[in-house]
Design goal:
It is a single chain. By secondary structure, this protein is α+β, with helices and mostly antiparallel strands. It has a single domain (2-101), classed as RelE-like (YaeB-like fold), CATH 3.30.2310.20. The protein is 39% helix and 30% strand. It is built from five helices and five strands, in the order βαααββββαα. The protein has a five-stranded mixed beta sheet with strand order 1-5-4-3-2. Helix 1 packs antiparallel against helix 2.
């Protein structure tokens, strides 16, 4: 997969230093992947979820760093691209306001 917007990860881990290693690990695994459907995603990231955003689009939520952080992404299987939409702390994610932006 081609993962778009690594800068978002860097910006996040500059604020949340403990997130750096798990986000780098997520990036490395996602970049090597050849996903064709959500089952493929779950083989690598078993705790990932599909969520409907307010826009009606499906986004994918990944638990990062032992459930401390959430990475929200759009996956385009045909073009083999993953677009990072947001990286949040668990507390920020729990507020649910991200669904309005995705």
């Amino acid at each position: 997969m081609r993962v778009i917007a690594k800068g978002m990860l860097v910006k996040f881990w500059e604020i949340h230093e403990q997130a750096r290693k798990p986000l780098e690990e997520w990036w490395a695994l996602a970049a090597k992947a050849r996903w064709t459907n959500f089952d493929d995603v779950r083989r690598i990231f078993a705790s990932s979820d599909q969520v409907k955003a307010k826009s009606g689009n499906t986004v994918y939520v990944f638990n990062i760093g032992g459930n401390k952080y959430r990475l929200i992404a759009a996956i385009h299987y045909k073009s083999q691209k993953v677009f990072i939409r947001e990286v949040l702390t668990h507390e920020e994610y729990s507020k649910g306001t991200w669904k309005e932006r995705s």
